[in-house]
Design brief:
Helix content: 25-40%
Largest sheet: 5 strands, mixed, barrel
Shape: globular
Keywords: Nucleotidyltransferase, Transferase
Organism: Lutispora saccharofermentans
Strand content: 15-25%
GO molecular function, one term: nucleotidyltransferase activity
Order of helices and strands: EHEHEHEEHEEEHEHHHHEEEEEEEEH
Protein name: Mannose-1-phosphate guanylyltransferase
Number of helices: 10
Oligomer: single chain
Radius of gyration: 21 Å
């Protein structure tokens, strides 16, 4: 049977100060009336029965998820005792699904992506589910690059799979980490690279075999978690094993090491709205090139992204800035340095007096 797993534990740090540790971007609605989590849940309901949709998160977000997704079943919220990266949360979820259904096929989705063509999205996932159901392969979704983006990882495609699939599918040659601008431009010129969307499809059993091979220590912890499910010691075992695990992402731990990975080249509009400059693709420009939300007044100011709430934001003679105003934080940042917001938060976290603003 087919299942969906929505990952909902991230902090969305590059979207600060709107996105906070206590209320990260998946719970916000930057592009419409629904939050990003609600949109993700709504999309996948068109493919997966609601009783087979699971959300994995940490204990800090349980109440928010219950409020935003009242339709989610009581047992369909998987709560981690602590954050230990995506390999842990996905593996933990996989053993839970395997306990329920030994033939489970998992569609793994981040909770904070924007999808434009939902019909094409569903068609792509259906193809991936068919491939996963009938093979041992791990499936990822790749996006044709439209610009030399430095905020995404890339996938180099290999041989095209000689099947009559309606959507082009390739053997993955290698995964590449976030490049600099020059390297990203080379990837686009090369034509054999796709953006790594972070969406995956696989049989839970096939995935766990990869853990056994490439992450044996985590695999042993996952076995202990599986054996504890449904017992009086379930939560204590879960905490004990999580304490042992050294966190690693699913990309580093499994996808980059496995030889059994296919990538489907998607043809639906995709964006992870990962930083403030991503918003420029969805905000109208005024005659000065400024893109604004809230109350903004300017003199001789150009090409700024401005996001306010209640207060007037006034600017004189400034260019190429990101200005974000919230109740307790004002961010002013050069557009080309929006990737440094994550580093700024790291430094804030080291300051005892300021860490509560993260």
């Amino acid at each position: 049977m087919n299942y969906a797993l929505i990952m909902c534990g991230g902090s969305g740090s590059r979207f600060w100060p709107k996105s906070r540790k206590a209320y990260p971007k998946q719970f916000l609605n930057p592009l419409g009336p629904d939050t990003m989590l609600q949109s993700t849940f709504s999309r996948i309901r068109n493919l997966i029965p609601i009783e087979n949709i699971y959300v994995v998160t940490n204990k800090n977000y349980v109440d928010i998820i219950r409020e935003q997704l009242p339709e989610l079943g009581e047992d369909n919220l998987i709560v981690e005792p602590m954050q230990k990266e995506t390999a842990t949360c996905i593996g933990h979820s996989a053993v839970r699904l395997m306990k329920k259904d030994s033939e489970a096929v998992m569609v793994v989705l981040p909770s904070d992506h924007h999808i434009e063509n939902e019909n094409a999205f569903i068609t792509t996932l259906q193809q991936g589910m068919l491939i996963a159901e009938n093979s041992k392969h791990l499936i990822t979704i790749g996006v044709k690059p439209t610009r030399p983006e430095t905020a995404y990882g890339y996938i180099q495609i290999g041989k095209k799979i000689d099947e009559e699939w309606p959507i082009d599918t390739y053997k993955v040659r290698r995964f590449t980490e976030k490049p600099n601008k020059e390297k990203a431009a080379e990837f686009i010129e090369d034509g054999r690279y796709l953006w790594n969307s972070g969406m995956f499809i696989w049989k839970a059993s096939s995935l766990l075999k990869q853990y056994k091979k490439h992450l044996p220590e985590i695999y042993e912890s996952l076995k202990a978690i599986r054996d504890g499910l449904g017992t009086d010691n379930e939560f204590s075992i879960l905490e004990e094993e999580y304490e042992k695990i050294e966190g690693i992402s699913i990309d580093y731990g499994i996808m980059e090491k496995s030889k059994d990975v296919y990538v489907i080249e998607c043809n639906f509009g995709w964006d992870d709205i990962g930083n403030w400059t991503a918003m420029e693709r969805y905000m109208e420009r005024d005659e000065w090139g400024n893109q604004t939300k809230g109350i903004f007044f300017q003199m001789d100011s150009r090409d700024c992204i401005v996001c306010g709430e209640k207060r007037l934001i006034a600017a004189i003679g400034v260019n190429d800035l990101i200005i974000v105003d919230t109740d307790d934080v004002l961010l002013i940042c050069r557009r080309e340095r929006d990737q440094d917001i994550k580093e700024l938060l790291s430094k804030l976290g080291e300051n005892v007096e300021l860490k509560d603003y993260i």
